[in-house]
Amino acid sequence: MLILAAIFFLALGLLGGIALSKTINESKIMRTVAELTTALEANTRTVEKIRVEVTGKIGELTASITELRRQLENVQLPPAAEAALVAHEAKLKELDDVIPDPPQVPGGDNPPAGNG
Questions:
Q1: Angle at alpha carbon of residue 54, lines to 50 and 60, rounded to 5°
Q2: Nearest-CA neighbor of 61 among 38, 102, 31, 90?
Q3: Cut 0.70: pTM above it
């Protein structure tokens, strides 16, 4: 009977230790998830900041090319210069296509599509 009681208390101790270990592991996992969430939120803010900056630069380049085209509308460009300008516009379009436009919010203050 004494042996049975000892086995019972030993089993209870093991189960209690397993439960305590499980609680500690769950606590560590929750802390890790919280840290990961914080890091992801910070990275998301950084990516959005970069997107805004790059989109702004693309807008500036697009505006400068548009202005250059306006100033040259009555000028006959040599074929090489025209080809270089067209190639530059195509590269800018490729860059613009890499950065997705932000979602449009109905009735919101939305930036123009095509600059990001």
A1: 150
A2: 90
A3: no
Closest CA to 66 of 26, 93, 32: 93
Q: Are 116 and 101 in contact (CB under 8 A)?
A: yes
> Which of 104, 105, 113, 103 lies closest to 55, judged by CA?
113
Structural contact between residues 5 and 13, judged by C-beta atoms closer than 8 angstroms: no
CA atoms 29, 31, 37, 39: torsion sign: negative
pLDDT in tens, 26-56: 777 778 888 899 999 999 999 888 888 888 8
Question: What is the block-wise mean pLDDT of the chain (116 residues), using blocks of 10 residues?
Answer: 60 58 73 88 90 88 90 90 91 84 70 53
Dihedral class, residue 100 (left if φ above 0, else alpha if ψ from -120 to 50, else beta) = beta
Matching residue, tokens 């890091």: 39
Identify whether the C-beta of residue 85 lies closer than 8 Å to the C-beta of residue 64.
no
